[in-house]
């Protein structure tokens, strides 16, 4: 086994031990071979020494996200964020000890939701990194759909100068174009693609989505995520069932956290 393959094996083992449900590697050339963003967003444009991007994912439990917008899901979201940043910090540190430049791009890197209302994007896309690292494909709802958890997965990326063997990108499209995400969006932020369009990705009014999130933040029930809660893709849905919370249970959980003052 080559030195690079040996290092990748060690990294994967560490990532799993730290709590990662998903682990994939992309070489930075993929951003150029299949460009889905302007070049200034490519990792090699920002950090010219970067050769590989390691993407890790942790799952979102269906029975918690289905209560959204709720404090239950909000706290889960915060927990996954802490876990992701800690995993990525530790993996970057390990790469340094192995003699490689490395750091991580934090999982939500836009500051506050009020900034997303003005400019609804971050400097680096974890979703695209996940796509290039072979973890899944991009669905109608603009999220990364994975076989294991559908879109119910949170991601973080470690950027390094180690030339690791990349994982193959997924060829099979996972989005089944059921339109559930479009129908359930409370802001009607999505315009689905025309029938027969080669890509399932909808047009999205990100400003509408950000405005709704700003409201939820004030209610302590941030983020929304309904378009990921309802997506039928993912083995997790088989485990938990299509709807894993009673209607009364959802209403009950949503009652808490709202500041009525
Ligand atoms: S997160 Fe909520 S508001 Fe934003 S697009 Fe998805 S369903 Fe719509
Ligand atoms: S809910 Fe349906 S249309 Fe939307 S991303 Fe999932 S599979 Fe695709």
Structural summary, described in words:
The protein has 261 residues and is an alpha+beta fold. The protein has one domain (3-251). Helix content is 40%, strand content 13%. It contains twelve helices and eight strands. The chain has helices spanning 3-18, 29-33, 43-46, 62-65, 71-97, 113-118, 126-132, 180-184, 206-218, 226-229, 235-240, 247-254, and strands spanning 22-27, 52-59, 102-105, 137-138, 144-145, 153-160, 190-191, 203-204. The strands form three sheets. A four-stranded antiparallel β-sheet has the order 1-2-6-3, sandwiched between helices. Helix 1 (3-18) runs antiparallel to helix 5. The radius of gyration is 18 Å and the shape is globular. The model has no long low-confidence stretch (mean pLDDT 94). Bound molecules: iron/sulfur cluster (2 copies). One iron/sulfur cluster (SF4) binds at residues 185-187, 189, 209, 212, 224-227.
Low-confidence stretches: none
Q: Taking all residues together, what is the mean pLDDT?
A: 94
Share of helical residues: 40-55%
Spatially, the strands of the biggest sheet line up as 1-2-6-3
Write the layout of secondary structure elements.
Layout: H1 3-18, E1 22-27, H2 29-33, H3 43-46, E2 52-59, H4 62-65, H5 71-97, E3 102-105, H6 113-118, H7 126-132, E4 137-138, E5 144-145, E6 153-160, H8 180-184, E7 190-191, E8 203-204, H9 206-218, H10 226-229, H11 235-240, H12 247-254
The protein binds iron/sulfur cluster (SF4) (2 copies).
